[in-house]
Amino acid sequence: MAESTVAMPDTEHTHTVTQPETQAVEATRPREHYMTPPVDIYETPESLVVIADMPGVDPAHVEVRVDNNILTLRGQTAYQMPGDQRHHEYTLVSFFRQFELGERIDQGGIRADLKQGVLTLTLPKAAKAQPRAITVNAA
After folding, report:
1. Domains and their CATH numbers in the chain
2. Average pLDDT, whole number, for the chain?
3. Best label site of 6, 77, 85, 95, fewest CB within 10 Å?
4. How many Cβ atoms sit within 10 Å of the Cβ of residue 126?
5. CB–CB of 39/51 below 8 Å?
């Protein structure tokens, strides 16, 4: 499994308004900022395990999908501060990362769990990619 070189999504949508004298660009939505979540990847005899840190993401706002051998992780933060905000020095951002999967992964058996901001993906190896012992018969 290798990290794909797919560019970060660009969610800035603009609409060009052309008038005879001037040309202006109207922004219809602010651009979303994404952070690449740090991951640890380790291998067991049966699977690859990906652990991604996604603090502030609720399980209902996590998307894990596989499309054309690309594993996509996306997490949207949606934390509201209690009370009126007087000052802030940081902003929660959403997470986005993609990996390219090889034929060694059983894509139908991928499992995802999110606990306390840590996303754990279990990517089982395809049966033909798992190591097995060969019995030697005496002749």
Report:
1. 35-79+90-130 (2.60.40.790)
2. 80
3. 85
4. 14
5. yes
> Which structure tokens are listed for 113?
């769990």
List C-alpha distances in Å: 60 to 14, 51, 56, 81, 107: 29, 18, 12, 19, 22
Q: Would you give the end-to-end CA distance of the chain in angstroms?
A: 41
Token pair 């390219």 is at which residue? Answer: 100
Structural tokens at position 89: 């020095």
Cβ 53 vs Cβ 118: under 8 Å: yes
Contact 91, 68 (CB under 8 A): no
Q: pTM for the full model?
A: 0.69
Conformation bin of residue 83: beta by default, left when phi > 0, alpha when psi is -120 to 50 = left
The listed range with the strongest mean pLDDT (39-48, 86-95, 125-134) is 39-48
In the numeric block, the tokens 């603009």 are attached to 14
